[in-house]
Design goal:
This protein is α/β, with parallel strands linked by helices and 268 residues long. The chain is built from seven helices and 13 strands. The chain binds NADPH dihydro-nicotinamide-adenine-dinucleotide phosphate (NDP) and the ligand O=C(O)C1=N[C@H](C(=O)O)C[C@H](O)C1. It is an enzyme of class 1 (oxidoreductase).
């Protein structure tokens, strides 16, 4: 039973007696496009407390000194591995939205975690619920269509291409196609300019558009004789990622080891 008597809590916050203690959270990449949004969302959440904001040039030890139990990382593919290593070494759980994770990187993180069996790391290329559902729907549909290609469209400030979401979607679709015994998507191209047919991710073509005015969008195009199926997801605002980020922040301490994607957190 909860009472209305306030009791002192760490980091200056107070909680109602009997209520779960607030979770101290640090944000890496805190001044970036996503970091700014995460700082707002954590600040607004009654069960979380923002204790550290770290950006390029700041001291990473601030998150440990501030007592963060969970760190959220939205930085850059070239620095994220060092950040995760630091957090695991300091027994801090991690929620990672930064892209650039292939199987080799994921295996490296899993290896670090073996030495810290109580620490949890969630790495998700996309925290948007609609984007996660699109990936699942594409996986389900893939076996019915001889052809699949992916188009991802983003704001021009994005440094990586193709997007982490598109790369993961392509890998999932490719695995579903393989499992169904489908041959490669038909393609007679013998003469093309470099890049015209997009990147090849496990045999699935992925095309990247960078356009002022866009935020984050993806289309999965599937074709069979006489019909096509187009699955499309649009993030018009970075607020769309916040329910997934907050869910992962709340869940990560209960999920030791490496969790890839938020599907399992959503019971998908
Ligand atoms: N999983 C998901 O749902 C989503 C993932 N993303 C991914 O998140 C990442 C960040 O995206 P976005 O916010 O748009 O990028 P931004 O460039 O806007 O933000 C990244 C921030 O991290 C800072 N930074 C660089 N190095 C460090 C470091 N060592 N420690 C702490 N901060 C550092 C950058 O500083 P500086 O600019 O000075 O380098 C910048 O302020 C990308 O990989 C993107 O693809 C984006 C949206 C959703
Ligand atoms: O950089 C972005 O903006 C985004 N990055 C992620 C990705 O690369 O998949 C997620 C989303 O597409 C927005």
């Amino acid at each position: 039973m909860t009472t209305s008597t306030p009791v002192p809590e760490q980091h200056g916050a107070t909680v109602e007696a009997g209520a779960a203690p607030v979770v101290p959270v640090g944000v890496l990449g805190a001044r970036g496009r996503m970091g700014t949004e995460v700082v707002k969302a954590v600040t607004a959440a009654g069960d979380l407390e923002l204790v550290a904001m770290v950006d390029a040039g700041d001291w990473l030890f601030d998150v440990a000194n501030a007592g963060a139990q969970v760190v959220v990382d939205f930085t850059r593919p070239d620095v994220v591995m060092d950040n995760i290593r630091f957090c695991i070494d300091h027994d801090i759980h991690c929620v990672v939205g930064t892209t650039g994770f292939d199987e080799e990187r994921l295996a490296t993180v899993a290896g670090w975690l073996r030495a810290k069996p109580d620490v949890g790391v969630v790495i998700a290329p996309n925290f948007g619920i609609g984007a996660v559902l699109l990936m699942r729907f594409a996986q389900e549909a893939a076996r019915f269509f001889p052809s699949t290609e992916i188009v991802e469209l983003h704001h021009p400030g994005k440094v990586d291409a193709p997007s982490g979401t598109a790369a993961r979607t392509a890998r999932l679709v490719a695995a579903a196609r393989d499992a169904a015994g489908l041959p490669p998507s038909p393609d007679a191209t013998t003469d093309s300019l470099p890049g015209a047919r997009g990147a090849d991710v496990d045999g699935v073509r992925v095309h990247a558009v960078r356009l002022t005015g866009l935020v984050a969008h993806q289309e999965v195009l599937m074709g069979a004789a006489g019909e096509t199926l187009t699955l499309r997801h649009d993030s018009y605002d970075r607020a769309s990622f916040m329910p997934g980020v907050l869910l992962a922040v709340r869940e990560v301490r209960r999920r030791p080891g490496l969790t890839v994607g938020v599907e399992s957190l959503l019971d998908l």
